[in-house]
Amino acid sequence: MSTSSPSNEKSDTAVKHTHQSHIDARTRAIANANAKLANPLRGIPHDRLMMDVEMFAHERGLTHILPELKKGALVAQDPTCHSRLDVFSDEDRRILTQEVTHKWRQTFTLYYMVVMSSLAAAVQGMDEAVINGAQIIYPKQFGIGDPNSKRDSWLIGLINSAPYLCCATISCWLTHPLNDYLGRKNTIFLTCMISFLTCIWSGLTNTWWHLFIARFFLGFGIGPKSTTVPVYTAECSPAPIRGALVMMWQMWTAFGIALGDLMDSAFYFISDTHDIIGLNWRLMLASVGIPGLIVCLQVLFAPESPPFNELCRLRFSRVQAARDLYYIHVLVEAESEMEKGRNRVVEMFAIPRNRHAAIASWIVMFGQQFCGVNVIAYYSSNIFLTSGFSQVSALYSSFAFGALNWLFTFPAIFTIDTFGRRNLLLLTFPCMAICLLITSFSFWSTSETGRLAGVSIGIYLFAVFYSPGEGPVPFTYAAEAFPLYIRDVGMSFATATTWFWNFVLAITWPSLILAFKPQGAFGWYAAWCCILWVLILLFVPETKGKTLEELDQVFTVPLRTHAMYGLRQIPYGFKFVLLQNPDPVQLYQLQDEVPSTRDDEKTRENEKEDLEKAMT
Question: Is the pTM of this model over 0.90?
């Protein structure tokens, strides 16, 4: 494959990487696929577009909305055409202009859907968090509470990690067939109902293996929901606010973790009755089912995507609904055409542009787990107990961690698209490593007050640095790094990666603590933060503000070239920190050498030939 080659060095701090003018068939095919999927209507003549709309209306029995479909197709092709064409009424122009100038002015139904999605995300976080407080109580009742027993430590880890074992091995891979057979709404209903039932089931168990089975089945509620709700939100949301609404999934999942920790603190004081032992931890585990049940009731009244009548409930005008309906149709058609005769899983690793995106996405997804955050999210109560806190104080301290984890996701809304994904990670990973080392060293303190203060400060500062960086970046990065034609495969790969390593962390922490003590265990994840910083520096390109065509150029840069660029950034970073205002290191100059499909009909005719060559 012909790849970009580095140009001569012009100075010690500036390297410019210029792409070759010739792009081979594979890279050109990806560029054409991205351009077509970015807007399948681009470059289609007006008469042909109108004919396509009429055929679509007759095939789908939508001739009664044909005028709206024609207007919608024009707006989908060119979002600014309503200000120039006479076919649009003054009311059409007002609503379509307002969609851009007042993007948060939306229908009640849309915001109802947003509330439902946010609550579903909170349920996700609560599912993950309530075990944190319950595990300081139930192990003794089940006979697995010996802190010096390897067997008991592995069993506690197995119980805590059971949902994520299910997600990584089974439930995540059921997302696509569930959505195909049931639709988005019914899938959300089913997964939230599973969460409700399995949480109640968890509270009724009386042996460790019974609790393991109940929590394993909880994974069937967590896995598909974690992918379906963001996709459902994206499909229902208008383009100007789609990214912000999808990002809310991570924010409200963090809120759910804090809420789960709060439930642990509230139910801890519930006393046993004469015939129920462990009522407090049972209520902790069962309490998560109530929000899940609320979502089940909410989703019955939410719109399904994307039928026209449902879209009309989400938009102010029929033209907006017709636009979104027709655009979804042509996008699905374009995706189906791109998939013919192609093995997208093979292409994700066989084509360097895709492989580089997969490696970068794997690094940030792996890093989200091995930075150590979920060790704290799942075991903070035990960690605080080990440092000398009482059980009540440990639960309150865990809630404080969850609250900080949620509050500091808000800065990411403003920094992720300005400061950049890569820069956020490079800034926060060293800080997280330092925080973990503070926590680790604090366990050596002979002063109880010093030990408690050090552990608390280390963990709380870790939350402050994690939440705006490695918290929201991985899913945002993975969602944009892959070419559109393999994006769903890439996201499945990324999601399975994060759930698998989530399982590994959850199952191994109790044994890690037993073998290496808290000092060594926290030092282990501090070391991983340092390793991940190096991997991000060398192999994770910046994707902020890049168009699809520019991302193709970014990810066709050879890994060796990008690694050398990363190494050259190190002295620049030191000079920047020392306020010397150095010239930034450059890797490439983005050029417009990728063939455009806007006005070039010949390029459109050659796309199939490029795709065939790409497979040879």
Answer: no
